[in-house]
Write a structure and sequence with these properties.
single chain, about 140 residues, alpha+beta, five-stranded mixed beta barrel
């Protein structure tokens, strides 16, 4: 049984798709698309040299065009602050007098222990404060 060249190219495309799924490296997907282009070239009756040339040109073109676009999108995305990092910079309401030794605030709907950044500073109930840092389970405010 003699298998046509285009079938071998499709087998190669599937073979390149497997590492794409396992490693999440998009370059394998680009090589896989190049192999499909080689299969189309073989199905149209072109020779081996043309098939390999189409495979190389399509693969390299995809890598040269798609990778920089993907890198720009990846680098341009702002990081999402989570956990205590998301609380820094937020405003809170003083529930119990806050000074350098302690107090209570309402931050993001929860009651937190708090202390002032400057030990000489005090905040009275009802005042709004800015959260500068989170030190363990204590919000540092100013």
């Amino acid at each position: 049984m003699d298998i046509d060249a285009w079938v071998w190219w499709l087998i190669g495309a599937v073979g390149l798709g497997i590492p794409l799924v396992l490693t999440a490296m998009p370059e394998f997907g680009m090589f896989s698309v190049g192999a499909v282009a080689g299969a189309v070239t073989a199905a149209l009756g072109f020779g081996v040299v043309a098939q390999v040339l189409v495979f190389v040109v399509v693969s390299v073109a995809l890598i040269a065009v798609v990778r920089p676009i993907a890198a720009r999108h990846r680098d341009g995305r702002p990081e999402l602050a989570t956990g205590v990092d998301a609380l820094k910079g937020r405003q809170a309401v003083v529930l119990e007098r806050v000074d350098g030794s302690g107090g209570r605030i309402k931050l993001a709907g929860e009651v937190w222990s708090a202390r002032t950044l400057d030990t000489g500073q005090t905040f009275e109930p009802g005042e709004r404060v800015d959260v500068v840092d989170i030190d363990g389970a204590t919000a540092v405010v100013m």
